[in-house]
Specification:
Blueprint: H1 11-25, E1 30-34, H2 44-49, E2 53-58, H3 61-64, E3 72-75
Parallel strand pairs: 1-2, 2-3
Length: 80
């Protein structure tokens, strides 16, 4: 199955700005983007500018491998 990502309107941009404002407001420095896969929420420039310890975690190693190499990544395995 081929997965395709599309953006609809400005919702994604507003969400990213919202997350960034929360990080700055609360002085967060250690963040885990759960389900970030191929498209992590925060851009690398924001992560570096704010010296964040940012990890992208996804159950799909295939999708996670599509994210740029600069991101710290963890593949999670679902256990029931």
């Amino acid at each position: 199955m081929k997965i395709t990502y599309l953006q609809s309107g400005s919702e994604w941009i507003e969400f990213v700005e919202f997350v960034q404002s929360l990080i700055e407001e609360h002085n967060a420095y250690k963040i885990c983007d759960i389900g970030g896969g191929a498209n992590p929420v925060l851009p690398i420039l924001f992560i570096k500018k704010n010296s964040l310890d940012y990890t992208v975690m996804d159950i799909s190693s295939e999708e996670l491998s599509k994210a740029p190499q600069e991101y710290k990544k963890i593949t999670s395995h679902l256990t029931v």
